Amino acid sequence: MESTAGRVMAREIAEQPATIEATVNRLRPLAEEIRALVGDRRRVILIARGTSDNAALYGQYLLALRAGVLAVPASPSLSALYRAEVDLSDTVAVAISQSGGTEEIVEAMHDAKQRGARTIAVTNGADSPLARDADLALVTAAGRELAVPATKTYSAQLVAVAVLALAIGQERRLLDQLDDVPEAVSRMLGTEDAAAALADRLRDVERMVVTARGLALTTARELALKLQETCHLAAVGLSGADLQHGPIAMLDARTPALLVASATDSAVAPGMVELARRCRASGADVHVLGGDDALGALADVRVAGPDLPPELAPIPLIVPGQLLTLALARAKGLDPDTPRGLNKVTQTA
């Protein structure tokens, strides 16, 4: 009898072109409202946990690159546990939560609002506490997500974060190019066979390093998280720069490296090629997700990535990683729909 493992996750991965198109169409018309709310405030804090934290990292890069705004991750524990008193009267607090019901995130945004911040929620929960309490809610159009690993809600969060950053930066060209993302995601769904071939190579691996530089780092960290939660793999998601400051010693013949890169990001391309050479010199297998031909030439297995501007590439770039996660979990005899010890909404004490 055919296994049903991962059937829900597979369906939700396949729904992403429609999810992204609907989210773009819903949120892009809010660009003027976003700018009006932000006004002349030039400091942004990003409140998130788990997968949403990886979407927040994308926001850090995009806000700096295309809006000239320094965005930093908030530490929800400062308000939830330490009750720190911080003046946020010059700040915009962006809280990111798929459900909008994670108490720590809701409370941290509410605390920021009480301390003077203007607040923006990024959530899939239109009627959630997070959406109700925010000054502006950017509600994604992912529909209900049933599998525990976030796939379509994550890519929808990336779209929302992109709209936010590009609206603040008045980047009309890139806002218009969001129309190209659904088709790019559809093409990435065609990498299923290549992802399965890589999964077969990784079937018996117990630990690995997933690494990137720049905008693609959000994809590397999200992919590492997915491998941890669905494949029970000790996957470490690191900046390529941080990797070379000591952790590269982890790599050996039993610990492969998976390098993640946009094919169009010339700023990081030379460094990623050199990083691949260093990883290979350690005796590790080197695999590549995305990247240009020079990086691909150093790979044992390469899974192609999207051909989009580097600012937008992280949205479709995660899709081959999701397909890899699905295939590897199945190869290990696991059901990625329901990873052990996890629930759809995580509450932290």
Automatic annotation (TrEMBL):
The keyword Repeat applies. InterPro entries: GlmS/AgaS_SIS, GlmS/FrlB_SIS, SIS_dom, SIS_dom_sf. Residues 30-174, 198-339 form the SIS domain. The lineage of its organism: Bacteria, Bacillati, Actinomycetota, Actinomycetes, Micrococcales. GO terms for biological process: carbohydrate derivative metabolic process. It comes from Actinotalea fermentans. PROSITE patterns: SIS. GO terms for molecular function: carbohydrate derivative binding. Pfam families: SIS (PF01380). Keywords: Repeat. This is Glutamine-fructose-6-phosphate transaminase.
